[in-house]
Amino acid sequence: MTTTTDIESSRTTGPGPRIHRRPGARIFSTAVAVLAIAVVLGIAGIVVGSGTIHWEIIAQYFFAPVMLNGVATTLMLTVVSLAASAVLGTLLAAMRISGNPVLRTIASAYIWFFRGTPLLVQIVFWFNLGLFLPRLDIAGFTISTNSLITPTTAALLGLFLNVSAFMCEVIRGGLLAVDTGQTEAALSIGMTPRRALLRIVLPQAIRVILPAAGNLAIDLLKATSLVYVIGTKEILGTVQGIAAQNFYVIEMLIVASLWYLVLVSVASLGQSWLEARLARGIGAAQPPAARPNL
Amino acid sequence: MTTTTDIESSRTTGPGPRIHRRPGARIFSTAVAVLAIAVVLGIAGIVVGSGTIHWEIIAQYFFAPVMLNGVATTLMLTVVSLAASAVLGTLLAAMRISGNPVLRTIASAYIWFFRGTPLLVQIVFWFNLGLFLPRLDIAGFTISTNSLITPTTAALLGLFLNVSAFMCEVIRGGLLAVDTGQTEAALSIGMTPRRALLRIVLPQAIRVILPAAGNLAIDLLKATSLVYVIGTKEILGTVQGIAAQNFYVIEMLIVASLWYLVLVSVASLGQSWLEARLARGIGAAQPPAARPNL
Amino acid sequence: MTTPLLDHAVRMHGLQKSFGAVRVLHGVDLTVERGQAAFIIGPSGSGKSTLLRCVNSLESYDGGELWVDGYLVGAERRGDRWIEASATLTASRRARIGMVFQRFNLFPNMTALENVTAGLRMVLKQESKQAFERGRELLARVGLANRADSYPSQLSGGQQQRVAIARAIAANPSIVLFDEPTSALDPELVGEVLAVMRDLARDGMTMLIVTHEISFAEEVGDVVHFIDGGKVAESGSPSAVIRHSNNPRTAEFLARIRKPG
Amino acid sequence: MTTPLLDHAVRMHGLQKSFGAVRVLHGVDLTVERGQAAFIIGPSGSGKSTLLRCVNSLESYDGGELWVDGYLVGAERRGDRWIEASATLTASRRARIGMVFQRFNLFPNMTALENVTAGLRMVLKQESKQAFERGRELLARVGLANRADSYPSQLSGGQQQRVAIARAIAANPSIVLFDEPTSALDPELVGEVLAVMRDLARDGMTMLIVTHEISFAEEVGDVVHFIDGGKVAESGSPSAVIRHSNNPRTAEFLARIRKPG
Amino acid sequence: TPFKVETNMKATADLASRLPSDIKAKGVLNGATTDGNAPWSFIDQATGKPAGVDADLINEAAKRLGLTVNWSDVQFTAGIPGVQSGRFDFYVSAMADTLAREKVVDFIAYSKEGSGVIVPKGNPQKIAKMEDLCGKKVSIVTGSLFPDIVKKLNETCSTPVALTETADQTGPYLAVASGQADATMNTYGVSNYTLKTATEGIQTKLELSPVALFAPANQGIAFSKTTPDLLAALAGTMQGMVEDGTYKKIMDKWQVGDGALNPILINAALF
Ligand SMILES: Nc1ncnc2c1ncn2[C@@H]1O[C@H](COP(=O)(O)OP(=O)(O)OP(=O)(O)O)[C@@H](O)[C@H]1O
Ligand SMILES: Nc1ncnc2c1ncn2[C@@H]1O[C@H](COP(=O)(O)OP(=O)(O)OP(=O)(O)O)[C@@H](O)[C@H]1O
Ligand SMILES: [Mg+2]
Ligand SMILES: [Mg+2]
Questions:
Q1: Is D198 in the C-facing interface, judged by CB distances under 8 Å?
Q2: By CB distance 3.0 to 4.6 Å, which of A209, A281, B196, B265 could disulfide with B186?
Q3: CA pair distance C5, A182, nearest whole angstrom
Q4: Strand arrangement of the beta sheet that strand C8-19 belongs to
């Protein structure tokens, strides 16, 4: 293993040699890159070359008004239920980390239930609330449940309550990631615990929360497809409706996939941008990014 | 705000007073607990009291052999695709944190694609692989794709490839959470980078990976329900099949929910147990659990 | 705010504190007079940090009396019963007590100036302009007039700790608590922080300082308290405690600190 | 393994290292003889850690020669070209170099004994029985015979660092590198670690030590190198460098370290 | 010569001889259906096997061709691509044979169905003719033909129909039972059978309204356009079953005899 040229010589004058990067790594990189491109092109070639896909159908429906409506619905469902769950999730997270065992138990039970049952079931339940509760009495007014719970309300209610359970865990993770010293410093300048949480801890927790919340948003974007069972026409529901008519099932699924890829990519870019913005002025305060020597 | 009794007296002898906990907190706790129980009982009362639910149907189908089959299928799909994704996920995670930009790009592209498209579409794609690729030539043998890709294979393939993208991110988070000092210490006693990753970093990363992987498993448990589109009868597919016959839709959804709650709870307990086991001997080395004074 | 008649900045009597089954403070009696620079020294685990944290209500205590500036801290009296103070009462008491932490605990998302003025703006609700004016004065006082707009991540450890000191004194507290303010610093950076503390002491700021910097305690301290096993084992002038102590525990501790190895 | 003829434990010549555009080591020439206890002192940011990390191949370097125990480290020669060493070559070189880190870096999921013997068992593939026997000897040598089965979390900082030293010397390295081995310790715990290092020096272990403990360097060191701005500014016996230096930078640095404030 | 599928061409028994040889060799037909369309196709929970008109007809035809059917129960989303990829030889699930769909697959039309309106028991909204649906909430299955019908109806309504869709057959029934919708539309055969045979469950809360049947369509079995000979063989065999009365017997058994066709047709879209 040790060649003679690696045994110490006694030269001690002149500038030392330049050390070059190992060429092996570069060769390996190139080989892997070529292989990966070959695989991707190969798969694309098989899919395209099989001639089974009607690209003109995909082109025709991609920007069809009914598709754009579906996309808008998907976005609306995602944004509204995400925003609402940020509020309920924060409340639940505050309950889970509070010193009060009763609040902790309630929050835990909520999370157990809503994480434990499929979203599909929850959506169907809310949609058919009228089966159990034909009318609601609110402040003396009696109102028929079914006129209150439209498919959209049911979809939003189901998504929101479900995603709040996940959001709670995300927010709790963020709060715990902020050093206790920050809370103590905030208290020591006279803040009340609540103000310390809202003004000092939460703003810092956001940096930890955002990446996880971004993942949640991406999951939610795709989970909204489940609401097609109660007839809310988002992306997947729309393409399935069209496919049932024209039988171009694979083509319509590709249309849906492309739309999801677009939305997810845009969401990811937005997330990166936000993360970068929030890191301003903080960057270097974090431990230096791990550099696993591997 | 300051009452006279709180102005300093000059007493300096005798033992100091005992300080009692504030009673307020206890009263508040009790009130919240009562309220929470009332809400839960109220909802339960409405659902049960409406008389619309046929509990005997739920009881009858809960342990029906066809249900148990569905449960077994759900479990099999979850366990197999989770285990397989642990391997691919680790590989992808190693690629994502490697110094090699090509490997990083490939892993990122994989994650982008598989996280960006709905699982449903991925499953349908694998199921219908024969549409693009009627036969496979493997080592000289020609085999019909459709006979190779059974519904179960397609389900597993779709779930596995999809969940690997998520698993990669979970594992990467775990690897980054292990202090670089651990890798350096491992290298300094003569380990190769690969051995350091496998013998020193991974075992410690597991503690961070497990909770997140547990969440993934729980999501996967419920996501398996999607495979009913290609005719694999797991829990949700089974209850929908039964409901299509007997029209006890809500009852069958409750059966499914109960099963999911059972499975998710068991999975959570297993996760806690494993986490506790892995924390043995490490417990106190971690930073003390955050105690937000809130 | 009317100033009570008594001259003690801090007075505690029989202070007791347990974590679960482990009793950490075994009845501490300790007084800090106004304008004193009081030092607490003692072995690791003897309860020094816990004591400071009680004074600032970052920990509750189980028994005894604790008065700061003449007001009961951490407890309220309801007739004959002494009960834990409410969160709002605690917050209002705490606003008059400054604290400097070992690990600085600056708010990383705020500039030095914003850190120093956080309490003025967010708690005392001063107007920004007025608060920032005062903040600049404070930064000048700790020698950082030109770093007002730097984020903590852009400052050295010593500079961060000086910002933390400015933040702690911003609201004119009756007392400032220091918990090993230099032990997280590179040896080279210790000096600049001690210099700022020396100035504060000279200006008559009441300070209660936990430190391992014995020579600094000797130089600056009005009084030194040696704590051992959750009790004050010895109190007195620096020279009495550090140079001429009769207490064998004190001597042993100082020997260990002075001559490493 | 045949021992090369030369007597240098470490010899570096013109060592250069940049992080991106920032050059950190500006051509370092430094030799450690066998059996020497060599100390490196210098201001924060002067490149001391980077130098040690290069010796142990935790950082690659851009130019110059680095020989440990007569073997080229971190680079290989291919004809006239010098290229970075492969990962396996680096690992095999590194097995003969011990390193003690500032923050101990013990493996938290292993007991003290398992930590000490990790290299013997996992790298040198010794049998457990034999490795554990040697591990117990080593633990006894650092005064921890009775803590073999404790996990790092159950040990004080000083004890953890002694385990880390035992781990570093387990494989009979030609040299042990120390990067500020006491600066993460409570002042009280510094002594026990320095005592172990003093014993090693007395036993003739070759050591290269970065530290701020000037008096320890004076007491134990065979040679002291003062590094400033990525270069060796002065080398010599402890008394020459620490007591009678003519270099103004050295004097300034020592003044700051000695008299905080 | 390969068989050429022509619109409205009638199946004849001699087509039965066209069975492709590879299928004959295997002796197995791979068929797909979707559960939940009783009486046409559903999974009998007792046996776990497909049952209903579709299964009875096709099993019988296969038997006459010396074949057995290997059934799969999949959703529509997997069924159509499955036929195209050759995974399945046919897909059947009470589907209407339409011109649009004939662009993608070939159909054997084997029955005629009209559609009806289903309302809660007692018909609380007094829905007696199509126009009564104006301003009401109607729930239907995604992918059915009803949205177009409602669209046409809306042209004559002052307040339009509020249409909601659900993904599976049970959804609309549940919606009507819970009052979420006022009515649903479904093919007559399906509604009639479900409501008549119901003894329990939500469908006991529903009934067929007096609205006249509408939107007649031929129901078909879907085949890949690449297997015309298989289609021919099956169509011919079914024509044989029509002629010897087996076909009518099966239709009557499931109470859908009204929709019997004679002869069996190929690609017989009515719209
Ligand atoms: N939150 C806590 N829970 C349980 N025990 C604690 C807690 N905080 C401190 N202790 C224990 O109380 C004792 C006193 O701790 P404290 O931090 O007050 O000591 P100290 O004198 O400040 O020591 P050091 O010089 O190491 O900072 C120690 O034994 C410590 O382990
Ligand atoms: N991974 C890195 N990337 C970029 N710059 C680095 C890195 N590691 C060290 N540096 C820079 O190199 C210079 C020398 O750092 P080094 O840690 O070697 O100094 P040091 O003498 O050990 O200082 P200290 O006494 O503070 O430990 C510093 O300016 C530091 O910021
Ligand atoms: Mg302390
Ligand atoms: Mg260093």
A1: yes
A2: B196
A3: 35
A4: C22-33, C8-19, C63-68, C71-72
From the CA atom positions of chain D, what is the Rg in Å? 18
Q: C13 in contact with B at a CB cutoff of 8 Å?
A: yes
Q: Note which residues in 62-91 of chain C have CB less than 8 A from chain A.
A: 87-88, 91
Decide if A8 and D29 are in contact by the 8 Å CB cutoff. Answer: no
| Mutation target among E37, E40, E45 for the B interface, most CBs of B within 10 A | E45
For residue B3, name the pLDDT band (cuts at 50, 70, 90).
Answer: very low
Query: pLDDT per residue over E46-95, tens digit each?
Result: 787 899 999 999 999 999 999 999 998 887 777 888 888 888 899 998 88
For residue C140, give the amino acid letter: A
Which class for A41: exposed (0-12), middle (13-18), buried (19 or more C-beta within 10 A)?
exposed
CB burial class (10 A; 0-12, 13-18, 19+) of residue C189?
Answer: buried
The response to whether residue C19 sits with its C-beta less than 6 Å from ligand 1 reads yes
- DSSP secondary structure letter of residue C179: E
A94, with CB counted inside 10 A (0-12, 13-18, 19+), is buried
Of B94-98, C49-53, E166-170, least confident by mean pLDDT is E166-170
pTM beyond 0.95: the answer is no
The answer to whether the CB atoms of E75 and B131 lie below 8 A apart is no
Q: Return the pLDDT at C198.
A: 95
Q: Which of residues 105-164 of C touch D (CB under 8 A)?
A: none
Establish how many alpha carbons lie within 13 A of residue E190's alpha carbon, considering only the half-sphere containing its beta carbon.
29
Predicted local confidence at residue A291, as pLDDT: 27
Ligand 2, residue D48: give the atom nearest the CA: 21
Contact residues on chain A for D63, CB-CB shorter than 8 A? 15-19
pLDDT at A285: 35
Say if residue D182 is exposed, middle or buried (CB neighbours under 10 Å; 0-12, 13-18, 19+).
buried
Which residues of D, range 112-141, sit inside 8 Å of B by Cβ?
A: 118-119, 122-124
Nearest C-alpha to atom 6 of ligand 1 is from which residue? Answer: C19
- Note the pLDDT of residue B152: 84
Measured from CB, residues less than 6 Å from any atom of ligand 2 are C 186; D 19, 24, 42, 44-50
Percent of chain B with pLDDT over 70: 85
Task: From the CA of D227, give the closest atom in ligand 2.
Answer: 21
Confidence check: pLDDT of A292 > 50 = no
Closest CA to A135 of A148, A126, A154: A148
In this predicted model, what pLDDT tens digit does every residue of C58-75 receive, in sequence order? 999 999 999 998 889 999
Looking from the CA of residue A288, the nearest atom of ligand 2 is 1
Residue A181's identity, in one-letter code, is G
- Give the model confidence (pLDDT) of D20-44 as tens digits: 888 999 999 999 999 999 999 999 8
User: What is the structure's pLDDT at C227?
Assistant: 95
- CA distances from residue B174 to B89, B90, B201 in whole angstroms, order as listed: 12, 11, 9
Please indicate if any CB of chain D lies within 8 Å of the CB of A289: no
Contact present, B184 and A293 (Cβ < 8 Å) = yes
Give, in degrees to the nearest 5, the angle at Cα B117 between B116 and B121: 170
Flag residues of chain D having pLDDT under 50. 1-3, 260-261
CB-based contact A218 B115, cutoff 8 Å: yes
> Could you say which of 3.40.50.1370, 1.10.3720.10, 3.40.50.1580, 3.40.50.300 is the CATH number of the domain covering B56-277?
1.10.3720.10
Contact C106, C185 (CB under 8 A): no
What's the pLDDT at A25?
67
Residue B16: both structure tokens together:
């100091």
Give the span between the Cα atoms of B278 and B204, in whole angstroms: 9
Cα angle: B281, vertex B283, B289; to 5 degrees = 175
Q: Which amino acid belongs to residue E150?
A: V
> Hey, is the C-beta of C170 within 8 angstroms of any chain A C-beta?
yes
